[in-house]
Amino acid sequence: MSGQEQLYIKEAFEQNWIAPLGPNVDNFEREVAMYTGTEDAAAVSSGTAAIHLALRLLGVESGDTVFCSSLTFIASANPILYQGAEPVFIDSEPDTWNMSPDALERALSEAERLPKAVIVVNLYGQSAKMDEIMSICDRYGVSVIEDAAESLGAEYKGKKSGSFGKYGIFSFNGNKIITTSGGGMLVSNDTEALRKARFLATQARDPAPHYQHSEQGYNYRMSNILAGIGRAQLEVLEERVAARRAVFNRYFSAFNEIEGFTFMPEMDGTKHNRWLTTLIIEAEKVGFTPAELINRLAEHNIEARPVWKPLHLQPLFKNVKYYPHTEEDSVSEKLFEKGICLPSGSNLTIEQQEKVIFIIKEIISK
Ligand SMILES: *Cc1c(COP(=O)(O)O)cnc(C)c1O
């Protein structure tokens, strides 16, 4: 927390405007839309809810397919199942670790029926190759949902991450770069669609005094208290991005020279928010696997984690179609096998980080 959150919460209490909705929600929506350079934003209870609403707005239903990045957190794809639709997973490419335009093109060209949507994830705060992906999807007339849950504050060619697709989504879950404890945002230039999103998110109540409903809705809106936290958090977003990038830079200086350590790239023309510092470790070269390093760090009460397990490898999705980067090369599988996320919190002190670096250096030297 930044400390300013209490101000907005206090205001809400003084106005006795706790829930549902209220002025903090309206302001938070406006501020996020301004920040991302989109026409409109709808505050919701989670990033997952925002993805679900985007799928609903695009008319995804049973019998449809939706393409989705494979290397991501399960929340990117679960809403496809909520709609009874079928996911198809698309591999990563090496420059950004995000959706491979080649695999996407192949999947679209081979599709019996075009997908209703493509969910593109900006992993760990690095934007996907949005120019290529948007141009392919435009050519096929398929809408893009940009899962920017991890990339708030990142940029692609001077524009904010999350502002490229028909819909963009952000998460304010506790682990993200800024948080409302739990929450999300759906952004778009289509204000009419976001009006519909707000309607669906408040139980799809028709404009009648007697609680009438013609469509299935959800209880997905953000409370006025949490939006107050979000407003104060948004004020420190740039600081948080700077802090995360500084953490990355310190790891980079320490280990860039190590043969067998390769950091997740920051593609030219993009600004990575470095939500998590991630790298690849080649066990043949350094003599230990990422899993062994995670265990060694854990002995010192330091938490490091593996890279997301690709969704096409998840038991939940065992019969789902998957398009690798090339016929011979599955990039996400390699990233899963060799990748590691190092401690990257915005509040990590230099001393704490030096301790992590010292211990890793010790492991390398042995
Ligand atoms: C966190 C996350 C989400 C979901 O956000 P919640 O607010 O936790 O529902 C979706 N996609 C990705 C890539 C995420 O990291």
What does this structure look like?
The chain is an alpha/beta fold. It folds into two domains: about 5-235, Aspartate Aminotransferase, domain 2 (3-Layer(aba) Sandwich), CATH 3.40.640; about 240-310 and about 330-365, Aspartate Aminotransferase, domain 1. Helices cover about 40% and strands about 15% of the residues. The chain contains 13 helices and 15 strands. The protein has helices at about 5-15, 25-35, 45-55, 80, 100-110, 130-140, 190-200, 225-235, 235-255, 285, 290-300, 330-340, 350-365, and strands at about 40-45, 65-70, 85-90, 115-120, 145, 155, 160, 165-170, 185-190, 260-265, 270, 275-280, 305, 320-325, 340. An eight-stranded mixed sheet has the order 1-9-8-5-4-2-3-14, sandwiched between helices. It has a four-stranded antiparallel sheet with strand order 10-12-15-13. Strands 7-6-11 form a three-stranded antiparallel sheet, with no helix packed on it. β4, α6 and β5 (about 145) form a beta-alpha-beta unit. It starts with a helix and ends with a helix. It binds pyridoxal-5'-phosphate (PLP). Pyridoxal-5'-phosphate binds near residues 72, 73 and 171.
User: And the CATH topology of the largest domain?
Assistant: Aspartate Aminotransferase, domain 2
Can you tell me the CATH architecture of the largest domain? Answer: 3-Layer(aba) Sandwich
Largest sheet features: 8 strands, mixed
How would you spell out the order of helices and strands? HHEHEHEHEHEEEEEHHHEEEHHEEHEH
Strand content: 15-25%
Low-confidence stretches: none
Bound molecules: pyridoxal-5'-phosphate
CATH-level-4 superfamily name of the largest domain: Type I PLP-dependent aspartate aminotransferase-like (Major domain)
Major beta sheet, strand line-up: 1-9-8-5-4-2-3-14
Instruction: Determine the structural class based on helices, strands and strand pairing.
Output: alpha/beta
What is the radius of gyration?
Answer: 21 Å
Q: State the end-to-end CA separation.
A: 39 Å
Number of helical elements: 13
CATH class of the largest domain: Alpha Beta
What overall geometry do the principal axes of the alpha carbons give?
Answer: globular
Total number of domains: 2
Can you give the mean pLDDT? 97
